[in-house]
Amino acid sequence: MKKFNKQNLIKALKGNAGTYLLVIAAYIILQLMSAGDMISSSLEGQLVPICAYVVMAISLNLTVGVLGELSLGHASFMSVGAFTGVITAMSLSGVIPMGGVRLLLAMIVGAIFAAIFGVIVGVPVLRLRGDYLAIVTLAFGEIIKNIINCLYVGIDANGLHLSVTDAESLNMDGGTVILNGPMGAVGINKLSGFTAGFLLVIVCLVVVLNFVNSRSGRAVMAIRDNVIAAESVGINVTRYRLMAFVTSAALAGAAGALYAMNYSTVSAAKFNFNTSILVLVFVVLGGLGNIRGSIIAAAALTILPELLREFSDYRMLVYAIVLIVVMLMANSAGGKRIQLWLGDKFRALFGKFAKRNTAKGE
Amino acid sequence: MTFLTYLISGISLGSVYAIIALGYTMVYGIAKMLNFAHGDVIMVGAYIAYCVMSYLGLSPIVSVIAAMIVCTLLGIIIERLAYKPLRSAASLAVLITAIGVSYFLQNSALLIWGSATKIFPTVVAGDGVSLFGGQVRITAVALTTILTCVVIMIALTMFIKMTKIGKAMRAVSEDKGAAQLMGINVNGTISVTFAIGSALAAIAGVLLCSAYPNLMPTTGSLPGIKAFTAAVFGGIGSIPGAMLGGILLGIIEIFAKAYISTQLSDAIVFAVLIIVLLVKPTGLLGKQIHEKV
User: Fold this and answer.
1) Does B115 touch chain A (CB under 8 A)?
2) Under an 8 A CB cutoff, do A324 and B100 touch?
3) In this model, does residue A1 exceed pLDDT 50?
4) Residue B202 forms part of a structural domain
5) What distance in Å separates the CA atoms of residue B53 and residue B213, rounded to the nearest whole number?
6) How many Cβ atoms are within 10 Å of B127's Cβ, its own excluded?
7) Which of B97, B110, B270 is nearest residue A139 as measured by Cβ atoms?
8) How many domains does chain B have?
9) Helix axes of B2-31 and B38-54: crossing angle, nearest 10 degrees
10) Do A323 and B100 touch (CB under 8 A)?
11) Within chain B, where are the H helices?
């Protein structure tokens, strides 16, 4: 029994090392390519969003894949992190001149606020199950979007001003408006960069992979597999579920801060239901509970619309078709048959090496 | 008296939600899937009706029937191509496929009809009804919407209670395997459910655009989400629940807009939903499912 566990652990560690290597290799290759002007400017503009979406996908995978609960409002945590992060970075612009430090603080504050919202949402939500839980996360997402749409925040020499009616009632002398109601955050200094994004991805990986392979992570997975059995061996179900949910929310908050700081304006409408769904698509396509899959799917699907640019007007249509076809191929009986058939062809072509790979892929 | 006016417009909006929610709840009850593309079927229905009226110049009744036929076919085709191969797959896989179908419909509409907002022509002519010496006015659109909703509800309940197909639908939603053993054509029954749901979506699309005449490829999304909320509110899988949930949601939305805040109305609607679900975790009329050890 002990030996078996050890083998499993070694296998998991090997997998984790592979994931880190993948991310680091991708970072180095992209940095070299951008230094040599080998990537298009549109792709270069996508690098920070890709990092943000990768973190979003990994963190949502913690809720959906590891905890086993469908969340349809993950973008709302991103939104909370984005706006609290922007407010932090802009309020500190006079105090701390270094952009990197402000970005770091913005991400930390964003993560903390998103975690607080995670607790507020998680305590009631995690009492529910299945589709009902999903709809309540959706509802919370819409509520947060609505509330941010009505918020006005400004800063002047006297500190922060908050209003829920309009920018005039902030009563500032001079100063700047940071959050302007439905227009969202305006006049952001672009602090994010690819390196910051890469570091956030690494931090996120460290947090999630260590969590999954820890005692708490195993408790969470036990709860996912069977709540009653987990409860009966003395696992505190509420505590561990909340732990996973809040960790996921905090990481999404940091991703939100990174994302927002990459643009000069960001509105709450950006983090709507469609964004939540987009991230969910990354998670499901990458494979539930499969962190490396999430990373690849998030990166590939964020680049895909750029690659489909030559289809111009048809590109989102092609994107939809790709999504449907991939889901059908991966999950239906017919798709499995096609996979097997392709596997046979590959085996015939490449012999033993390909055989081992398809066996792994299955 | 303004209270009564708001109440009536709330019921009218709620009726549209209820009709859409019926589609969600029937599909959920039978196929156990959240059909996220349902909101976009509404949009397609509205566009078809718009085209028949504006380009062919036919009467509103003909346009509604045309929209129903197209949407029914669309519903059956979507089910056959996208959902049927995934019948035994994980529910999340089906959900993502439904999202793919939703993107597909929205972007097809964008290519066919363009992104410019189309103004939906008036479907229901007439002045409506005045009550209490003109203090309360019910518009013809509101009256038609409410009446349509009542007719649909009665017809659907009778269909499910009395016909053989309705009985098959109830059996399939109870236990797919047992129903198949009893000789019920499960795939056929699911197709019929999608057909009915989509036909109702076409009606809902026309009614929705009669009240709010801006037609865009994304017109169906938000009403779709709200109707889905309504279905959950009433207890997903339950037909009376969908009606009740839809109408309550419409009333809450209009009251929130009128008395509290226009901007926060959606937040209030969703907050009420959360409170209801916390008190009654399976919705107002939903069945409590006990987990077996």
Assistant:
1) no
2) yes
3) no
4) yes
5) 14
6) 8
7) B270
8) 1
9) 120
10) yes
11) 2-31, 38-54, 60-78, 91-113, 140-162, 164-174, 176-181, 186-211, 221-234, 239-255, 265-279
Long-range pairs of A143-146 with CB within 8 A, sequence gap ≥ 24: A143/B266, A143/B267, A143/B270, A143/B271, A144/A73, A144/A76, A144/A79, A144/A80, A144/A117, A145/A76, A145/A79, A145/A268, A145/A269, A145/A271, A145/A272, A146/B263, A146/B264, A146/B266, A146/B267
> Which of B93, B103, B229 lies nearest to residue A331, judging by beta carbons?
B93
Mutate to test the interface with A, among B270, B272, B292 (most CBs of A within 10 A): B270
pLDDT of residue A353: 52
User: What is the spatial distance between Cα A65 and Cα B43, in angstroms, rounded to a whole number?
Assistant: 33
- Gap from B130 CA to chain A (nearest CA, Å): 36
| Whole-model pTM over 0.95 | no
- ipTM of predicted complex: 0.81
Q: Which two tokens stand for residue A28?
A: 């180095």
**How close A231 comes to chain B (CA, Å)?**
12
Identify the pLDDT of residue A220: 92
Structural tokens at position B83: 């959902």
Residue B260 touches chain A, beta carbons under 8 Å? no
* Residue B142 vs residue A178, higher pLDDT: B142
CB contact under 8 A, B93 and A139: no
CA of A144, closest CA in chain B: separation in Å?
A: 8
Tell whether B146 is covered by a domain. Answer: yes
Contact A284 B110 (CB under 8 A): no
Q: What is the pLDDT of residues A112-151, one digit of tens each?
A: 999 999 998 888 888 777 777 788 888 888 888 888 888 8
Partner-chain contact A132 B89, CB within 8 Å: no
Beta bridge partners of B129: B138
For residue A71, is pLDDT > 80? Answer: yes
Check B107 against A284: CB less than 8 A apart: no
Q: Which residues of B touch A317 (CB under 8 A)?
A: 104, 107-108, 111
Residue B251 lies in a domain: no
Q: What CA–CA distance (Å, rounded) separates B14 from B147?
A: 12
**Nearest-CA distance from B131 to chain A in Å?**
36
Domain that holds residue B85: 12-220
Q: Show the domains of chain A with their CATH numbers.
A: 2-331 (1.10.3470)
Which of 4-43 (B) contact A at CB < 8 A?
28, 34, 36
Cβ atoms of B206 and B64 closer than 8 Å: yes
| Inside any domain, residue B18 | yes
